Amino acid sequence: MPAGAILDLEKFQESERRLTPQRQAVLKAFLELSQEHPTAEAIYQAARRHCPTVGMATVYRSLELFVQMGIIVKAPTLNGTARYEMNKTPHNHFVCLKCGRTYEFHRQQEPVIDRKIKKEGFEVISASMIFFGYCPTCRE
Ligand SMILES: [Zn+2]
Ligand SMILES: [Zn+2]
Q1: Mean of the pLDDT values across residues 79-95?
Q2: Which residue in 59, 83, 87, 130 could disulfide with 75, CB within 3.0 to 4.6 Å?
Q3: Å from CA of 35 to ligand 2 middle
Q4: What does pLDDT average to over the chain?
Q5: DSSP states of 14-59 as a string?
Q6: 96 is in an annotated binding site
Q7: Is the pLDDT of residue 33 over 50?
Q8: What is the pLDDT of residue 1?
Q9: Nearest bound ligand to CA 2?
């Protein structure tokens, strides 16, 4: 996990006491699944194991809150179903057209486009290039 994400999480845990047990369960579930770019549905299933009274509406509201707090971001997907991931250093995604899985590829260096954007006075908060195709499993 990159340093930025850890810092954000610490900041978040400071205010965690204000969170209801339901929201704590949603956060816990997200952290367990964060490597998989989980959907709200997957987070809901996992959150119910921690707190059986969690409802789907609470999951959606909590995720929106975490997005607003800058802890998590929406990851790109094929069909528009929201998937979530930690807000961390910019990286690229590969979305498989068959199984719909999202894979991550980290960038070796800052792309030329980023430098050009910064030179013109913009501050980049998040960036992602999406590649579409077939993953090794689906190509077989
Ligand atoms: Zn695939
Ligand atoms: Zn990602």
Answers
A1: 83
A2: 83
A3: 8
A4: 83
A5: HGGGGS-HHHHHHHHHHHHHGGG--BHHHHHHHHHHH-TT--HHHH
A6: yes
A7: yes
A8: 41
A9: 2
Residue type, 50: H
99 marked as part of a ligand binding site: yes
C-alpha of residue 98 to centroid of ligand 1, in Å = 5
> For residue 97, how far is its CA from the centre of ligand 1 (angstroms)?
7
Q: What is the mean pLDDT of the segment spanning 97-125?
A: 81
Structural domains of the chain, ranges and CATH numbers in brackets: 3-85 (1.10.10.10), 89-139 (3.30.1490.190)
C-beta separation of 28 from 47 below 8 A: yes
What's the gap in Å between 82 CA and the centre of ligand 1?
A: 18
Ligand 2 mean position, distance from CA 131 (Å): 12
- Could you report how far apart the first and last alpha carbons of the chain are, in Å? 32
The answer to whether 138 is a known ligand-binding residue is yes
Give CA separation, 128 vs 29, 37, 124, in Å: 24, 14, 11
Cα–Cα distance for residue pair 38/50, rounded to 1 Å: 17
